[in-house]
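Work Package 3 committed the consortium to producing structural models of liganded targets before the mid-term review. Because experimental data for this complex are still outstanding, the team generated a predictive model from sequence and the ligand definition alone, so that downstream docking and mutagenesis planning could proceed in parallel. The input record is reproduced below exactly as it was submitted to the modelling pipeline, together with the SMILES string for guanosine-5'-triphosphate.
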Amino acid sequence: MRVALVDSNGAARAVMQGLLRSEGAEVHAFAHGEEALQALADGLRVDLVLVSRHLPDMGALELLRRVRQTPCCAVLPVVLITGDDAEPLRLSALEGGFTEVLLRAAPDQLAPHLRALLRRQIDQQRGRILLVEDSPAMAAATAEALAPLGMEVEHALRAHEALERLEQQAFDLVIVDVVLPGALTGLGLLSAIRSRRDDLAELPVLAYTGYDERVRRVEMLRRGANDYVTKPIDADELRARVSNLVRYWRLLQQVRRQHALMMRQAVTDALTGLHNRYLLDELGPRHVRRAWRGGEPLTAMMLDLDHFKDVNDQHGHDRGDQVLRELAQRLREQVRPEDVLVRYGGEEFALLLPRLGPAVAEGHAERLRQAVAQRPLAGLTLTVSIGVCVWQPAPSPGAAASAEDAAALLRGLLVCADRALYRAKGAGRNRCVVDVVDTVPRV
Ligand SMILES: Nc1nc2c(ncn2[C@@H]2O[C@H](COP(=O)(O)OP(=O)(O)OP(=O)(O)O)[C@@H](O)[C@H]2O)c(=O)[nH]1
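The resulting structure, written out as tokens with the ligand in place, is given here.
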């Protein structure tokens, strides 16, 4: 693997270079973005570019954009190296088009990440094939036919052995002989792959069938084989079909990654990295149902910065943004894993806390208030007001709230907390107002 490393910090560059070399990579190191771009334009061929976030002559995004414009490198993987592991930065880097983000860390922590990154890139380029074939002659013929593609071929003799390998390693394609000895034949293996509940269910499968095995061939296709090749194999035909299937799998994975990223973005607030209110809409009704069924308390809190408009007016919008980021971090430190914390909008945050009695909920709100008041945010002493609504429903065992009902109850609970917040503001701010109710309106 050939790597272009672009990092202006000499010491950090030397560490990375050492680690990459110890993983067997050929490293071309540059201190400036322009030097790296020039080398690529002059014909330097690399498989991967690693770019530090801060370069003296250009931003990492600018470098990425220009690498993409260089004819050789339109789809070259470009990885951002950064010491900042904040989620918003990661998301914006991926959104900007970086292939991955690598967290700069101490060498012993960095080494395994770097190794995994190189491994992923190598797998990505070469393709890994699992061949499930009991005939040594066919296995040898396949390996020989695929050698020019530079793909790695792992060989399993039996279907159950193939299933074990699929659990342990990543493959881009399974080639399976329809007829295999043992309880699980090629057909059985195919069914086992297609009935999985994870991404592997879509793994491309190419069937080897005998020329006269028409019925089995059709059955393989019915059960979800993507393609077949008849024996004796024609090397050119096999290579063409394998390349197509591996390309299809790559594309599918790319679409999945983008989809996962979009899903994450859809529920993430870009400024603070907290979830946004859509996650509350998603998770809230489940908490409502549980509370409703078991008669367990469920607490909603609405938390709002006091006089935040003055911060923007007096110190500027950027400082205001910094306040929101630091506030989000402080709140994050205070919540339990089962609590839902979201930026509800503007300078307002919402929390949903299951199973807290009124006294504990009030104590918790008070701790949140103090956590803000006692330490400055972005250098400014600020306060928050918090409206708390503790809902203590009577148990209704067996009575399941419908999805619509649960959503309406959640909205009612938030309205109740919002009203308490309004009272906290009216009573002078920097305080918590707690309402304890046994019913909430469906809103
Ligand atoms: N910097 C920054 N400001 C924001 C953001 N979202 C909302 N705001 C500002 O938040 C301020 C909210 O002002 P108000 O609703 O008047 O409330 P307030 O000044 O905090 O006063 P009280 O809530 O009554 O204590 C407005 O100035 C908005 O522009 C944001 O993402 N960044």
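Reviewers should note the following from the model. The mean pLDDT is 90. These observations will guide the Year 2 experiments.
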